[in-house]
Design goal:
76% helix
Length: 84
């Protein structure tokens, strides 16, 4: 993936609001864009795999997507808020 898509933009907005130290560190290292792209790619890959697994377990497409999204989103995009 060459640029930020929806997941990458969502991660960027969330990280800037809830993980400012992480963003600052990544920016200082020149790695913010790389980290966002990695979060985006991992999210898309795992989401796809989970949807397929859940579909095989009998969930309809919407149920499979929603369940997979719930499981994946906090791994890479909606990181826990930093404590002050």
């Amino acid at each position: 993936m060459s640029g930020l898509l929806a997941y990458g933009r969502m991660a960027q907005a969330h990280w800037r609001e809830h993980c400012p130290r992480l963003v600052r560190e990544l920016e200082q290292q020149g790695r913010l864009q790389e980290a966002l792209l990695e979060a985006q790619e991992r999210t898309a890959t795992e989401l796809d795999l989970l949807i397929r697994d859940l579909r095989q377990q009998g969930l309809d497409p919407t149920q499979a997507h929603d369940r997979a999204w719930e499981l994946v989103r906090e791994r890479y995009i909606l990181l826990p808020a930093e404590t002050t």
